[in-house]
Amino acid sequence: MQAYWMRTGAEGAMLELRETAVPQAGPGQLLVRLQAASLNRGEFLVAPGAPEASGWKQAGGEGSGLVVSAGAEVSRFKPGDRVMGRCAGAFAEYALMEEAETLAVPDSLSPDEADSLMLTFLVAYDMLVIQGRLRPGEWLLVNGVSSGVGVASLQMAKLLGAKVIGTSGSADKLALLQGLGLDAAIHSRAPDFAAAVLEATAQHGADLVVNTVGGSVFAENIRAMAFEGRLATVGHVDGVLHAELDLEALHRRRLTLFGVSNKLRSKAQRAAALPAFEADFMPHVAAGRLRPQIDRIFDFEHLAQAKARMEGGAHVGKIVLRMA
To answer: Is the pLDDT of residue 273 over 70?
Structure first.
């Protein structure tokens, strides 16, 4: 089969298309012929402190397709079923999915939409529901609201009955997202939005903040938060890993700070939230009330162009790679 391999170094992420053996499903695994896979910004970033050049590994982290075969101990799926989920090496013709991290694709979703749902919406579910405890009527602030996770957070928050403020350096992106329910748009890339957040919320502040940007906006987020506000850090695309922390504000306003990453979690830990997510949100997906926002679809051979669009920050929502 054809599969993309990737390594990261000082020059960024390098891609190489190779002929690779088709994997075999082990216990609890599904072999899936992929129909589509989506890009995630984090997989192309060079981790701080990483070696000058990493080793080659298969690229891609989530996809959708048809089950070809099932390993021992698999009980929920059979060959021919449409599935979506996390899978290492998703930029390929075939890949393995863990049954515990896989969901059936509702009839309402196309393969391009199905491959774009799992990672961003599960991250949003972690931030907004599990850790963020977002309640109806509360204010959510999303830095970089046009990113894949940002758009998913906006969509999920509106289903939860919250009000959403988004920041972006593009007025056109903000205008597009107002069609998805964005309540207040702040056109800025600079850490200068706290006053606008307080004005939009009648001086209440943001009850929950989703920081997809990084350290450059951290201190401003603290200034924008409400009493007993929560701050989720989900990325650092700005490359800024250190920031000022106002301990007086943290203490006096009883703030909560938490991180959102799956890099150190076990398979069991990653899969633990799936049943609740499926019960809470998949009915909305099946009914068409919740759909991934697709920015652009690229053919399999054009992964380099898809990666360039993501790294250039031109997208709103998810970028999809469609298999032949």
So the answer is: yes
What is the distance of C-alpha 120 from the center of its chain?
A: 3
The C-alpha atoms of residue 222 and residue 244 are separated, in whole angstroms, by: 10
Give how far Cα 10 sits from Cα of 7, 45, 216, Å.
Answer: 10, 10, 22
The Cα–Cα gap between 301 and 179 comes to: 32
Please give the pLDDT value at position 317: 95
The pLDDT of residue 176 is above 90: yes
3-state secondary structure of 55: coil
Tell me if 184 sits within 8 A of 211, measured CB to CB.
Answer: no
Go through the domains of the chain in sequence order and give each one's CATH number. 2-117+266-322 (3.90.180.10), 120-259 (3.90.180.10)
Contact, 313 vs 29, CB < 8 A? no
Q: Are the C-beta atoms of 259 and 108 separated by less than 8 Å?
A: no
Euclidean distance between CA atoms 152 and 250, whole angstroms? 27
Q: At residue 22, does pLDDT exceed 80?
A: yes
Distance CA 231, CA 141 (A): 9
pTM reported for the whole predicted model: 0.94
DSSP characters over 59-105: ---EEEEEEEEE-TT--S--TT-EEEEE-TT-SBSEEEEEGGGEEEP
**Are the CB atoms for 307 and 15 separated by under 8 Å?**
yes
Q: What is the CA radius of gyration of the chain?
A: 20
| First and final C-alpha spacing in the chain | 12
